[in-house]
């Protein structure tokens, strides 16, 4: 059939990587008493089995504290050659847990009083972070633009946690943690949520857009804010069509392969049915959910983290990929979630998924994807079709060239919802 015109240019043994499993290497971590250099090391994560974090007292690592909250994981950040720990919440958008950015109270300033009994370090103004010397806050350093300053409270003691800042590949979509001017830009739309410009000059999460309404940005002079308006929702049902660079056309089939993944077929009569509802205001709508006809157990079309991917992210310079499959619903703009999906059902392998990742152009019918990486960053997904030896499998990737060099396959540039009424 036409589907088998796609061939991998790698040897057959390399194709097996697409189905191979992976085994993470446990982090042993340093131990109390290990030698350290305070000029390069402020703190380190302890053994993954001990759930501790260590601080450098000048030349030796001593116990900093015990991580008692099972939702927190210790990671290490290196900024300007200095290593320190970052306690981050598992499975959440880091910026949403930022207690400093979500507060309109002013942060402490250099010289303000402090007590080590309640605060070891705190986030300061102008991208700085401060440490308590026992009596007052002193400047610890300035934060790189790739990081966000958050505060963690462990057993009543506040300490700084520097976490990766969300990456915004699309300048038209404001993202949590990016800078703003509270004197000019007061609020912005963020999918079905809103963003508020905090007094400290960073976008923080606001409220939800009310049901039956849509968010619109108003600009007057150099000031801007949001308003809510009545929505004009429309529903469209059809088949998903893809085109490759040579103009060949395929459709998402009405059956999964043996791994619970969508396959591409050449006969539209055997295509699956998909339905989406969008707000018809003459612009690209999203993020949206799309229902599908193949699985009655999982209602939504979604992205499923690839079996051989190193994690649930896709990005440039990475071969990571996502399957198209049937999934349970995830909240729009949320990070990948380990919930029910068609791949895990048949493979018994747990993979993270997202459902509300689709953007629809009502003028052309084209579908695009913005995947939310585990660190909260949005990335525009690209599409590749790969022949696994039995079926033609569509996948989403962050870097077409890197993926194809590892697994083979061919890029397709058009993903379109063709209405049944056409």
Protein described:
By secondary structure, the protein is mainly β. Helix content is 4%, strand content 42%. It has 3 helices and 30 strands. Strands 16, 17, 18, 19, 21, 22, 23, 24, 28, 29 and 30 form an 11-stranded antiparallel sheet that branches. Strands 20-25-26-27 form a 4-stranded antiparallel sheet, with no helix packed on it. The chain has a 3-stranded antiparallel sheet with strand order 1-2-3, with no helix packed on it. The N terminus is likely disordered.
Short note summarizing the structure:
This protein has 422 residues and is mainly beta.
List keywords for this structure.
single chain; 422 residues; mainly beta; 11-stranded antiparallel sheet; 3 helices; 30 strands; 4% helix; globular; disordered N terminus
Topology of helices and strands:
Blueprint: H1 12-15, E1 43-45, E2 52-56, E3 61-66, E4 72-79, E5 82-89, E6 121-123, E7 128-132, E8 137-142, E9 147-154, E10 157-164, E11 187-190, E12 193-197, E13 203-208, E14 213-220, E15 223-230, E16 233-244, E17 249-256, E18 262-265, E19 274-279, E20 285-288, E21 290-292, E22 300-305, E23 321-327, H2 342-347, E24 353-354, E25 358-360, E26 367-372, E27 378-380, E28 382-387, E29 392-397, H3 400-407, E30 410-419
